[in-house]
Design a protein that fits this description.
alpha/beta, OB fold (Dihydrolipoamide Acetyltransferase, E2P), Rossmann fold, Ubiquitin-like (UB roll), 4 domains, 6-stranded mixed beta sheet, 4-stranded antiparallel beta sheet, 11 helices, 25% helix, binds iron/sulfur cluster
């Protein structure tokens, strides 16, 4: 079943969003390194994970300004640096792999394709890796931000790809941007298509010697290593029937969704649902929700663009199994969770095709929580 693409912003050049007066970050579980009233510079560390946390989360200020609140969220009032250095590329072979990994860590880089998995961990698999793929497929409806970054910042993405390859010792690099419609770009499918390796159930691409990173993750790695710039912003597609000026915008992390939509001339009275990320894998959001590194979209959808499942009894048609890119039977997994659930990317295809309109993604998430 083909999903409508709605990629009307595909040829819109990236614009810088007019900044909001402040940005906000959740501080729960983090160690603050600033106090209320402190002055901060763009790029300065605000909070970091406790030492024992292997995810080693680093949150840096996208703004020059001052810290006006630290609990429950850190709020920085100010404005971003408008001039960002470009064009400087460090030769990957001149760098130690450990240095690249450390730069990714302190820059706070995470998977920007939706996973938000820390990039420094992805670059330290402990297993031999021979290939790094930049995933530029971006098959989610509405989203075109990665495609625009590939067009407008190709040299930076290429540089980040080479740095990632240096970090893991890979000899082969490639950018995958074939367009097969949703859910094209599923990692295991890419590894099979481009490398000919089958990733077994319960395993990840690095188990067969491949890592896959997102377009904007690669660019962020370039900025961290070559420019010393932490992850402070990202390109986001702003779209949906309620948005007056849809397009691709560079948005500081921590910006409220409501500000993004206001700057894009959104008619709030028309909104039926706000989504952070794409419509298939994103999360329903509020106007107060803030833009995070993983989120490629801010969508303000009107009633004709959404469909909420009504949850009727399963008719055992098997359509969910046929539609699943991972070959999973959602019908069975929600009844009897098992470890193959770890292969579920929550892509939503099973729910999309289900004639009984079962809320399968929510049920799959609950099932995953049961197996831990
Ligand atoms: S698609 Fe829906 S109705 Fe069909 S087997 Fe799967 S869960 Fe049941
Ligand atoms: S959400 Fe459904 S279709 Fe997608 S991977 Fe999980 S089980 Fe398969």
């Amino acid at each position: 079943m083909k999903i409508k693409e709605h990629k009307h912003t595909a040829s819109d050049p990236i614009k810088r969003l007019a900044p909001s007066p402040s940005v906000r970050f959740g501080a729960k579980g983090l160690c603050l390194v600033v106090a209320a009233g402190d002055s901060v510079r763009a790029g300065q560390l605000l909070a970091v994970s406790p030492r024992e946390d292997r995810f080693a989360k680093h949150v840096c200020s996208p703004y020059n300004g001052s810290v006006v609140q630290i609990q429950p969220d850190v709020v920085v009032h100010g404005e971003p640096d408008v001039v960002v250095a470009t064009g400087s590329h460090v030769a990957p072979l001149s760098l130690a792999p450990e240095y690249i990994v450390e730069r990714a860590k302190v820059a706070g880089i995470v998977g920007m394709g939706g996973g938000a998995y820390p990039t420094h961990l992805k670059l330290t698999t402990g297993l031999p890796v021979d290939t790094v793929i930049v995933n530029g497929c971006e098959s989610e409806p509405y989203l075109t931000c990665d495609a625009r970054v590939l067009v407008e910042y190709r040299a930076e993405v290429d540089c980040g790809l080479q740095l990632a390859a240096r970090a893991v010792g890979a000899s082969r690099t490639l950018i995958a941007n074939a367009h097969h419609g949703y859910p094209g770009g599923y990692e295991k499918t890419l590894v099979s298509e481009y490398c000919g390796h089958l990733v077994p159930t319960g395993q990840r691409p690095h188990h067969v010697g491949v890592i896959v990173i997102n377009v904007q993750t690669a660019r962020a790695l370039h900025q961290a290593v070559c420019l010393g710039r932490p992850l402070l912003d990202r390109v986001v597609t702003v779209a949906g029937g309620a948005v007056g000026c849809p397009g691709n915008y560079l948005v500081p992390l921590g910006t409220e969704v409501g500000h993004v939509l206001k700057e894009c001339a959104t008619d709030v009275s028309k909104i039926a649902a706000v989504v952070l990320g794409g419509p298939m894998m994103g999360r329903e959001a509020q106007l107060e929700t803030t833009v995070e590194a993983w989120a490629g979209g801010v969508l303000a959808l009107v009633p004709g663009e959404i469909h909420r499942p009504v949850d009727m009894p399963c008719i055992r048609c098997g359509d969910c199994l046929v539609a699943c890119p991972a070959g999973l039977s959602a019908r069975h997994l929600v009844l009897r969770p098992n470890p193959s659930l770890r292969d579920c990317t929550e892509c939503g295809m099973c729910q999309y095709v289900c004639p009984a309109e079962r809320p399968l993604v929510r049920l799959l998430r609950q099932a995953k929580a049961k197996i831990g």
